[in-house]
Predict the 3D structure of the following.
Amino acid sequence: MDLNCDNIKKIYPKSAKILSKWTDKSLATIALRDLYDFFDSQSIVVLIDDIFHWVIRYDLPTGTYGIGDILEWFETRREAEEAAFEQAFVILEKRLNYIDSNK
């Protein structure tokens, strides 16, 4: 997936709204490095290891936690980051939908 701002807004609208409030930058100019801090602030921790494999640790709205990883290794760190952040957006969007449905 191409993590450009249009795709983020279209596929993950609730997450995009929170990201927009969190940053003082335009979504079009946010760097991958900024996403580490953003997801940390959402209790979704993205880790990329030295062989370009990713792991995500996150809190669930039910008070438990989850760990997600992919048994795929990437050629570059950037490819691993893009795949991990895509999954982080999926996790955040699901969390926000869960919270909204339980109001």
Notes: The first helix runs from residue 5 to 11. The chain has one domain: 5-101.
